[in-house]
């Protein structure tokens, strides 16, 4: 289970938005649908997920109907605010969404489309464990309107998968990709680097295996040790080594080189898309500060600067909705300084860059120093945009500090 929810103000029982909130109909709107179920908890995972023994009365077979109840609530709340917009992107995350029958995922997607509509050519993504994807499931998802499958590959090396407590076999990734392709779905694969015992050669093998699958998109994330996870406890007890920062930097540089040489362009620090293929439009909606409603236990939402988050446990989530109440646990409106910090943090990580005109004058004066340090692309800066170099991507947090301190 994830860590504690953020602090914030109490959320209205009916979920109503503040009367002074003004929604811009020109801002894109997305939906995130959280499916919090997993067969096994991975040792590194800090997401809000639950195995069968942790559900405490919540019913997995009733989950779709429960979440559809929140969709109905969201339509009423946003309709009262006078700004119903069709969805640009939809993302089923988890957990393992494909643990639910594809018919349940289809019903949830259908309910969201009935509530809001969906733009032509919208991106609809489902995350999947490789072991849960069959040709029949992929075909049923495609028929329901899903356009993209995001497959949790993580590694192609058995001992690295074991260190991460992943239960799938490496060959099952190819089976899942082939099933998705046969159904006409775009394919993304997720990788993690820096696991205990993973060498640079192990990582090279995983990159080679991932590129040989010819996906449209690859995400590669450095392993982060989150408090409260099994892996954090193992490291604290000295059972496994902590990630090595220098090795992870070498792994990132290797990933960028291998992916660039095999036809992938980076567009965000941890994300690459095949040249000419679709980037993750849903993630870009987050990074650009668009509006979204997060459905499900522990899910977060953002509309016109207002943020809120749902109660964490599936049983509490279901109980709230059964009582006709909003599942929101808390809400906040970040002040302008916090909003600006987040804008700089997120936009500077993207290849499209951060417009220099949006920076405070004292921050703009520091850009020359960042160029001199090899962290910022000088040609892009001359064109008025801050774009990180490869070295800058490795030290992205330092760039943000330089621009905001």
From TrEMBL:
Coiled coil: none annotated. It is found in: Cytoplasm. InterPro entries: Coproporphyrinogen-III_oxidase, Elp3/MiaA/NifB-like_rSAM, HemW-like, rSAM, rSAM_sf. Residues 23-265 form the Radical SAM core domain. Keywords: 4Fe-4S, Chaperone, Cytoplasm, Heme, Iron, Iron-sulfur, Metal-binding, S-adenosyl-L-methionine. Pfam families: Radical_SAM. Belongs to the anaerobic coproporphyrinogen-III oxidase family. HemW subfamily. Probably acts as a heme chaperone, transferring heme to an unknown acceptor. Binds one molecule of heme per monomer, possibly covalently. Binds 1 [4Fe-4S] cluster. The cluster is coordinated with 3 cysteines and an exchangeable S-adenosyl-L-methionine. This is Heme chaperone HemW.
């Amino acid at each position: 289970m994830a860590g504690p929810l953020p602090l914030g103000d109490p959320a209205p029982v009916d979920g109503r938005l503040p009367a002074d909130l003004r929604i811009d109909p020109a801002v894109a709107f997305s939906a995130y649908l959280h499916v919090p179920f997993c067969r096994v908890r991975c040792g590194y995972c800090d997401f809000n997920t639950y195995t069968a023994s942790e559900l405490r009365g919540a019913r997995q077979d009733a989950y779709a109907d429960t979440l559809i109840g929140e969709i109905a609530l969201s339509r009423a709340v946003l309709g009262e605010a006078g700004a119903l917009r069709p969805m640009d992107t939809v993302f089923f995350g988890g957990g393992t969404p494909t643990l639910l029958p594809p018919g349940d995922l289809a019903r949830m997607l259908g309910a969201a489309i009935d509530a809001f509509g969906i733009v032509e050519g919208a991106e609809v993504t489902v995350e999947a464990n490789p072991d849960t994807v069959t040709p029949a499931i992929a075909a049923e998802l495609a028929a329901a309107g899903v356009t993209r499958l995001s497959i949790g590959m993580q590694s192609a090396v058995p001992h690295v998968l074991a260190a991460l407590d992943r239960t799938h076999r490496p060959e099952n990734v190819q089976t899942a990709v082939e099933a998705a392709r046969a159904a006409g779905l775009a394919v993304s694969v997720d990788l993690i680097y820096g696991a205990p015992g993973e060498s640079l050669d192990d990582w090279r093998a995983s990159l080679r295996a991932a590129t040989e699958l010819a996906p449209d998109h690859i995400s590669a994330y450095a392993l982060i040790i989150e408090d409260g996870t099994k892996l954090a406890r193992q490291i604290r007890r000295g059972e496994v080594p902590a990630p090595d920062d220098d090795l992870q930097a070498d792994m990132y540089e290797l990933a960028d080189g291998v992916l660039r040489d095999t036809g992938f362009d980076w567009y965000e620090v941890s994300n690459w898309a095949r040249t000419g293929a679709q980037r993750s439009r849903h993630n870009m909606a987050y990074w650009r500060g668009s509006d979204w409603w997060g459905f499900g236990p522990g899910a977060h939402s953002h509309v016109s600067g207002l943020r809120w988050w749902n109660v964490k446990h599936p049983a509490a989530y279901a109980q709230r909705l059964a009582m006709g109440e909003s599942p929101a646990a808390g809400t906040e409106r970040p002040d302008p300084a916090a909003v600006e910090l987040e804008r700089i943090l997120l936009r500077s990580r993207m290849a499209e860059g951060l417009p220099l005109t949006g920076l405070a004058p004292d921050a703009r004066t520091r850009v020359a120093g960042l160029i001199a340090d090899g962290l910022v692309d000088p040609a892009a800066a001359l064109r008025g945009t801050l774009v990180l170099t490869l070295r800058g991507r490795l030290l992205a947090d330092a760039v943000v500090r330089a621009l905001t301190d």
